[in-house]
Amino acid sequence: MTETSPTPSRRRAAPMEPDQRRAMIVAAALPLVIEYGSSVSTAKIARAAGIGEGTIFRAFADKDALLAACMAEAVRPDDTVAHLESIALDQPLTARLTEAAEVMRGYMTRMGAIAGALAAAGRLERPAPAKDGRSPDREAGLTAPRAALAALFEPDQDSLRLTPERLADAFQLILMSAGRPGAPDPLTTEELVDLFLNGALTTPGEAR
Question: Which of 26, 55, 89, 167 would bridge 51 by S-S if both were Cys, CB 3.0 to 4.6 A apart?
């Protein structure tokens, strides 16, 4: 009689930690909030996340708490900063800034899409702007990327007219302005970087 080895028992997957579960739900919710705004149902979010709807309300107090977490995730710059810091410094400054501009534009598009979707439905409270007109929440999300942008200028600092920090601030402001919703015929990334580095004149000193 041939002995058969016992069938190994199936191990259940380890349960997610609460923070992991919330992060997973937010990741599933973000594209839906961009598409549907605050009207997206928690049932739709649950289907996208592959969980039961009740799991959402064990992770978040209510739908507003989930929407607030989506906004916080959209503003969080960690992935953007990591990408900026990974840009090779041994390539020309134009190439560095072109790659950085693409990264920043993607970040600001995501942030703006979430904020716009929630604001349109009256579900986003915007803090009062600072004296210089900047939004405190957006400014907080752009501080770390600004430092990473400054590092991209540093290899060429002997050839720069301003400090890397001031140039990073100016470059970031131009990116924000160029990416505003509804801008007619927006500049391409290549056009924007060329204009920033070389100015508006074909030959320096032409203007009178």
Answer: 55
> Could you read off the pLDDT of 131-151 as tens digits, one per residue?
554 555 555 667 889 999 999
Contacts of 177 (CB under 8 A, 6+ apart): none
Dmax (CA) of the chain: 103
Of residues 111, 182, 104, 204, the one with CA closest to residue 148: 104
Measured between alpha carbons, how far is 29 from 64 in angstroms, rounded to an integer?
12
Six-digit token string for 77: 């710059």
What pTM, to 2 d.p., does this model score?
Answer: 0.72
What are the distances in angstroms from CA 185 to CA 66, 179, 192? 35, 11, 12
pLDDT, residue 118, reads: 80
Distance CA 135, CA 178 (A): 17
> 40: exposed, middle or buried (C-beta count within 10 Å: 0-12, 13-18, 19+)?
buried
Residues in Cβ contact with 52 at an 8 Å cutoff, skipping those fewer than 6 apart? 46
Alpha helices in 37-88 (DSSP H): 42-49, 53-59, 63-75, 78-85
